Amino acid sequence: MTTPYANILKPLHLGFTTIKNRMVMGSMHTGLEDRFYNYPKLAAYFGERAKGGVGLIITGGISPNRQGWLLPAGGTMNTMGDIAPHRLVTHAVHKHGAKILMQILHSGRYGYQPFVVSASPIKSPISPFKPRQMSEKQILATIRDYAETSHLAKLAGYDGVEIMGSEGYLLNQFLSRHVNQRQDRWGGSIDNRMRFAVEIVRAIRQKVGEKFIICFRLSMLDLVHDGNTMQEVIAVAQALEKAGITLLNTGIGWHEARIPTIVTSVPRAAFADYTAEVKKHVTVPVIASNRINMPDTAEEILAQGKADMVQMARPFLADPYWVNKTATNRVDEINTCIACNQACLDHTFKNQRATCLVNPRAAFETELVYVKTAKPKRVAVVGGGVAGMSAATVAAERGHQVTLFEASHEVGGQFNLAKVIPGKEEFHETIRYFKVQIEKTGVELRLNTKVNREQLEREGFDEIIVATGVVPRALKIKGGDAPNILSYAEVLRGAAVGHRVAVIGAGGIGFDVSEFLLKPPHQPQPQPLAEWKREWGVDAEAHYMTEGGLQRAEVEAPVREIYLLQRKTTPLGIGLGKTSGWVHRAQLKKHAVRMLRGVQYKAVTNEGLWVETNGQDQLLRVDTIVVCAGQESVKDLMPNEGQVTLANYHIIGGAKLAAELDAKRAIRDGAEIAAKL
Ligand code: NAP
Ligand code: SF4
């Protein structure tokens, strides 16, 4: 079969071993790594990705010792007793011809535990614990721990290890002046700052021999003040190569950096040029990373010689079969990671198991199982939003005969509104994925069809899934029927909006709508990379001389004056996702959106919106009011309790519960009900 993805599918020969293609599943903590009893689940999770065709997998971070724990009692490998559960993982991966590295991660001052250590005793802004400065003795002991952990990883069947040296973890803390303010041989010049990392690689190589992969994940762009320059990054890369690494992986930005590096508004492959710059100066294969989620982007990076391999982590949660689908020209079947972080990283930060918003089976492979049905039923799904599409396609995949009714002319529901928000263009992909699934699984789709219960029962369905979603909540206020009061749905569908706007309700949608209104009428294309870098203050020069690659941000003037309002007295946006909320808050702040809390809405008049704050009446002279005050469920198809019906009824997604309506629950609800039919 001819393929437009020849570079992705080309094996990589490392001399002593061969990786079957150029795709790497990057390290991502699922939460399953930390407890031995979860390893059967972890093995199923990695095994499925290996079966899906990926060439190389890197596990979530495992600490070389207690000081390196990210969380109390985190996954550690430093005794023979630690290796048994890992054998389940390596076996599950090797069975399908993929290779696997164990990542060794010492969190340094990022640890959420009291034993934290670092280069210098400087507290990080993202952990409450102040680190102790590592003594010479502790540094030498830690080097031995890394070597011993690598040796144990080899015994557990891993093909190699990855040393986590980026994202602001311990080795990155030593590498950069941002944290390393030591005066001894481990601090000061770049030669001294890199000594710890280089000695670790040397010690591991000596312990494990030549035929074992050592990958080093190096920060190619720190994005923090006092971070390294590109010249320093290259010097470190060359020294690591000399010390014996096999692969050089890319890390971008410290976790504490205030520049987004992976959220959905970051343009695809935004950082590949920095990796390409380093690649010019080393001979070991180099791996590109960050915001790469589809084959065209990966192929282009490889074809242009910017990297030898491409790493993705979240996209393999979204679709374990990404490589096989690419290899067999079924790219339109890929369930694309939309970089929302809602079910993966946001879960990790809440100490919950990571999974995926668009693929609720991720990390639940043994629990959410789609078995072919022995008794096909006639199933009606009413509502073509993501909940309905998820239910319909899973039920059909299992062998049921499914009809999906959608009242409007298109499927997608609330995702059709989300996809027009600047920076949320990836949401198009989810709609495309479900449309293809509807076709492939044989769901009968009836658009422009509003059905009632009598019609459904007349057609003789066995099971009826009500996924009729939500309607925006209207605002109850004096003057509330004025024509300049619009719902968020009307605005996102293109209603005319004035130049001075009050947005009522500061949930996810209030923030999204504010961003939508700040910019000129939105083009469906993602933001150009150069413009994005200017807006966030990222040095566009691949061989950047600025420290950490930071520059002064240049923000374009907003096209509207906006007030964002809420009744609560808490800071606006604190309920947004942990890993993406700060990006939205920063965007609105940069564009001078006025955020008011503790607001009572009094009346809408010709002059604007009257509100009360701190006991004072205030007139906001606005010409348009956009209501983003949550939603109400549409559930009139559901029979009342005790009512006799011919079919079994189920209700899912926003129709079931509008409060905290979210796509993660909607898609999972749909999949779970369909798995049980
Ligand atoms: P939401 O998060 O529930 O926010 C609704 C807002 O409306 C609240 O700020 C609430 O604040 C206000 N409100 C509620 N009832 C009101 C009333 N009767 N009158 C005036 N104000 C009222 O809902 P949403 O913004 O519509 O978002 C829905 C869901 O979509 C979210 O749960 C989220 O999961 C998802 N989403 C997330 C994102 C994101 O993370 N970026 C973006 C879009 C959507 P007060 O009560 O304090 O006024
Ligand atoms: Fe990607 Fe969102 Fe799934 Fe995470 S939850 S893997 S970001 S789609």
From TrEMBL:
Essential cofactor(s): [4Fe-4S] cluster; FMN
An example Gene Ontology molecular-function term: FMN binding
Domain FAD/NAD(P)-binding: 378-646
CDD domains: DCR_FMN
Keyword list, A-Z: Flavoprotein, FMN, Iron, Iron-sulfur, Metal-binding, Oxidoreductase
Domain of life: Bacteria
Gene3D superfamilies (UniProt xref): Aldolase class I, FAD/NAD(P)-binding domain, NAD(P)-binding Rossmann-like Domain
InterPro entries: Aldolase_TIM (IPR013785), FAD/NAD-bd_sf (IPR036188), FAD/NAD-binding_dom (IPR023753), NADH:flavin_oxidoreductase (IPR051793), OxRdtase_FMN_N (IPR001155)
Annotated ranges, domain NADH:flavin oxidoreductase/NADH oxidase N-terminal: 8-332
BP GO annotations: fatty acid beta-oxidation, unsaturated, even number, reductase/isomerase pathway
Protein family according to the UniProt entry: In the N-terminal section; belongs to the NADH:flavin oxidoreductase/NADH oxidase family.
Name of this chain's protein: 2,4-dienoyl-CoA reductase (NADPH2)
